[in-house]
Design brief:
The chain is α+β, with helices and mostly antiparallel strands. The protein has helices spanning 17-21, 60-77, 111-119, 121-133, and strands spanning 32-40, 81-87, 102-108, 134-143.
C-alpha cells in the first residue's frame, strides 16, 4: 500500500460534474467497460461519514472490500459485472514512483446503466466505503 497524499492532492476519487457530463458523449447503444486503477489508503478515512466507520480502524484495502461486497447486488441489478480484479505490481512504463494497488474492469450494458448504478441509493451508501478506501483512482471508459 502507498502512503496517503495531502488533502489538496486527493482530487481523483470522486467524479466532477464535467466528468459526469462526459458520459453523455459515449455511444448510448454500446456496452462500456470501465478500467479502474485504485490506490488504497493505509488506513480508511471515514471522516466524511463517521456513522459508517467501523469500531476499530481498518485498511483502505478492507474498506474497498466492503464497498465491493455492498455494491455487488446493485451492480448485478443494472446488468453490470466485474470482469477482472487484480493486484498491481510496480509500474513498468509510466511516471517514476507511480504505483497502483489494484486494477479492475467492470462491464456495463451501456452508459445509462452506469449512470443508474452511481445514482442508485444502495450504491450511494456503498460508495462511502470506496471514498474511505481510496487515496487516488482512475476510471477510464472503454468500448465494450
Amino acid at each position: 500500500m502507498n502512503t496517503d497524499l495531502p488533502p489538496a492532492e486527493r482530487c481523483s476519487v470522486e467524479p466532477t460534474a464535467a466528468q459526469l457530463g462526459a458520459l453523455d458523449e459515449l455511444d448510448a447503444d454500446v456496452a462500456v467497460v470501465m478500467l479502474n486503477l485504485v490506490r488504497f489508503r493505509d488506513v480508511a478515512d471515514y471522516s466524511h461519514r463517521p456513522d459508517l466507520a467501523p469500531e476499530a480502524p481498518i485498511s483502505g484495502a478492507e474498506a474497498y472490500r466492503r464497498y465491493s461486497a455492498a455494491a455487488q447486488d446493485t451492480l448485478g441489478a443494472i446488468g453490470g459485472a466485474v470482469e477482472h480484479f487484480r493486484s498491481c505490481r510496480p509500474t513498468f512504463i509510466g511516471p517514476d514512483g507511480e504505483q497502483w494497488d489494484a486494477v479492475l474492469t467492470v462491464r456495463y450494458p451501456n452508459p445509462a446503466a452506469f449512470r443508474a448504478l452511481i445514482n442508485h441509493p444502495a450504491y450511494v451508501e456503498a460508495a462511502v466505503h470506496r471514498t474511505a478506501a481510496l487515496v487516488d483512482s482512475r476510471l477510464i471508459p472503454t468500448s465494450g
